[in-house]
Specification:
The protein is mainly alpha-helical. It has one domain. The protein is built from 19 helices and no strands.
Length: 419
């Protein structure tokens, strides 16, 4: 009997998650920020552009800065040639470095073009600082409270992004600000969302949401913005840049299907199946229905009347499940999703299991890569699925609350409480 009681108490603790209060949230955020500051201090304690272990500071930023140098030097024909780019990277950092691939479509060249106007570390600092401002300003717009900025800085994917010098700050800012402006300034929102065409795997479900929601002005602006970027790349570098990109796509497929990027670093259902020993065919067989289901959920949610905060959060989580190529720094998209759910909880109260799903999603970027490497089991798709289920439960609750309960009584709300 005691065992049953104890098990019930543990389930109740997870179901209600009353332990996830403001005090614990602030304490965990403080520990995360202190640990991140220590990690960054260690990285910067190396010599020149290398950390104490001899790796380039900013790692993936090496390709961004090197591609910029190639563009400014009129060598754009080399950026989609892996062997040529590897040689350029070694020359740019004056020594041996791992190869950092460049597989982004030509609109991304416009984004990185100015970077080599600054020395490497200055360019990296400016890139990250501007991205961080865009990311935090979006979170503040969602939930304008000091705790939002504190928790936003502490989100584990922030440290991963800082260490890799990647573009997750930019993609998250574009996505979040696009959704924030969608219903009040659709043309501006569409332009921002159109810029996401530089990273199309994260824009996969945007057309589904915009069409289902009838956001035609935003969709037209997004299409016009994306086409304008395409036109500008042709104007600057000619149509050959697109021929080079298309010729590089088999290499991109090779990266995904053969593990040139180790599968423990990838966070998708496809990667989870490959990491567990599944074949490429089996991995696609898992990823395809997940992608279709994610698109169907977004279409259904955005087609019906629903709270915009809930629609936005659901789109972000579904996007992360829908793409087969997803790195842990891309999980930064969870931050605005969590902020939108927090806004709903502050206003309407938390639902059972919701806070536990949010806590798991918040911690996942911190441990997913290490756990996958140690166990060959990738937890991220399951955590994302649990969070998506929690959002769908809130959607059902809101729909039920909008209809009279049997006997004419109002439907019950969830448990209240402010984080």
């Amino acid at each position: 009997m005691a065992i049953v009681v104890a098990r019930g108490a543990r389930l109740a603790a997870l179901r209600e998650a009353r332990w996830l209060d403001r005090k614990r949230l602030c304490g965990c955020a403080a520990l995360s920020i202190i640990a991140a500051a220590a990690a960054l201090a260690w990285v910067l304690a190396g010599h020149g552009v290398r950390d104490p272990a001899g790796r380039p500071i900013g790692t993936d930023f090496v390709s961004f800065w090197t591609v910029s140098r190639a563009l400014l030097g009129g060598r754009q024909h080399l950026v989609y040639d892996p062997a040529a780019l590897a040689a350029l990277e070694r020359a740019a950092l004056a020594g041996a470095v791992p190869f950092y691939a460049w597989q982004y479509p030509p609109p991304a060249l416009l984004i990185v073009l100015p970077l080599a106007l600054l020395p490497y570390l200055w360019a990296l600092s400016a890139w990250l600082a501007l991205g961080l401002v865009g990311y935090l300003s979006a979170l503040w717009r969602i939930v304008p409270r000091p705790l939002t900025l504190w928790a936003g800085l502490a989100f584990p994917a922030v440290l991963i992004e800082l260490l890799h010098g990647q573009n997750a700050f930019l993609t998250t800012a574009l996505f979040a600000w696009g959704l924030l402006l969608l219903r009040t300034r659709p043309a501006a929102a569409g332009v921002l969302l159109g810029v996401l065409s530089f990273k199309p795997q994260l824009a996969l479900l945007l057309p589904v949401a915009l069409v289902a929601g009838g956001h035609w002005r935003a969709l037209a602006a997004a299409a016009a913005g994306a086409l304008a970027l395409v036109g500008l790349t042709v104007l600057l570098w000619g149509g050959g840049i697109w021929a080079d990109f298309l010729a590089s796509l088999p290499f991109a497929r090779l990266i995904l299907e053969t593990g040139l990027v180790p599968y423990y670093k990838l966070q998708s259902p496809f990667a989870a199946m490959r990491l567990a020993g599944g074949s490429v065919t089996a991995a696609y067989a898992v990823q395809a229905p997940v992608t279709v289901a994610a698109a169907a959920i977004v279409a259904r949610t955005w087609r019906r009347p629903a709270d915009p905060a809930l629609q936005n959060a659901l789109l972000l989580v579904a996007t992360l499940l829908a793409t087969p190529f997803l790195l842990d720094y891309d999980l930064l998209l969870l931050a605005p999703a969590i902020a939108w759910v927090a806004e709903l909880e502050i206003r309407d109260g938390a639902l059972p299991w919701e806070r536990t799903a949010l806590a798991a999603a918040s911690a996942t970027p911190l441990f997913a890569r290490a756990l996958a490497a140690a166990t060959l089991l990738q937890p991220t798709p399951f955590v994302l699925a649990a969070l998506l289920a929690a959002l769908l439960a809130r959607l059902r609750r809101d729909g039920n609350r909008a209809r009279p309960a049997p006997g004419g009584a109002p439907a019950a709300d969830g448990a209240g409480g402010e984080l």
